[in-house]
Specification:
232 residues, mainly alpha, 74% helix
């Protein structure tokens, strides 16, 4: 993109278009090389701007990627909630598989989920963090409503399920993409086979166990309450 095309935006529409171009460039670079290795200069170069000009639109590289994390939450939540809303009933294993599948098919989002608490939330303004947290809270509430409807989870159990799914998806994705040299090491030595991770099946197993446990816990609580109440 040539330099004249990136003269300073003068209108709200031009500013919005410029911000979107920056986000698009960061998204593409993140998918290609991983979020951790992308610098502000890399993003500016991809857009055709000088780094100092890019800082008129975003305060730091972390703010750019935090915006993409919020975008990822909205998109994942929409797809997951649409799937869950179409069900009248579901087993813990089915819910777990849906969670794991919709996360595993979003590698950039998984990468961002790992990076957000490590550094993306730490080099931005308090207002940026507040906006991000409120955006994710809204999506958690939407997903949680479906979990309560389908599995009878409590609010805290729903939040724990979503937190476990997203935090583990981020961690497992990092383990699943160690880089070429490490992957060669892991696959060359049978003793290191455990280090080769597949995100979706492992996440499915963990979430199935968690949701099944919540179901057992709920049943025991109900039975204990009935016993305490005595015969009708």
């Amino acid at each position: 993109m040539n330099e004249p095309a990136f003269q300073r935006a003068r209108s709200a529409e031009a500013k919005q278009a410029r911000e979107q171009a920056i986000l698009d460039a960061a998204r593409t670079l993140g998918r290609q090389r991983g979020v951790r290795d992308i610098t502000l200069t890399d993003i500016a170069t991809a857009v055709g701007m000088h780094k100092s000009a890019l800082l008129r639109y975003f305060e730091t590289r972390e703010q750019i990627f935090l915006e993409l994390t919020a975008e990822g939450w909205r998109q994942w939540s929409a797809d997951l909630s649409r799937d869950l809303a179409g069900r009248t009933q579901a087993t813990p294993a089915e819910i777990a598989a849906t969670f794991a599948g919709t996360l595993a098919e979003r590698p950039l989002f998984c990468d961002l989920l790992a990076q957000a608490p490590l550094n993306l939330e730490r080099n931005v303004s308090i207002e940026s963090v507040r906006s991000f947290k409120l955006a994710t809270l809204h999506e958690v509430e939407l997903i949680g409503g479906e979990l309560r409807r389908l599995l009878g989870l409590t609010e805290s159990q729903s939040v724990d399920t979503i937190a476990t799914a997203t935090s583990m998806a981020g961690a497992l994705w990092q383990m699943a993409t160690p880089g070429t040299r490490l992957r060669e090491l892991y696959t060359s030595d049978p003793r290191l086979g455990h280090a080769v991770v597949e995100v979706e099946p492992r996440l499915t197993r963990v979430l199935t166990a968690l949701l099944t446990g919540f179901g057992v816990q709920s049943t025991r609580t109900t039975e204990a309450a009935r016993t305490a109440a005595g015969p009708p």
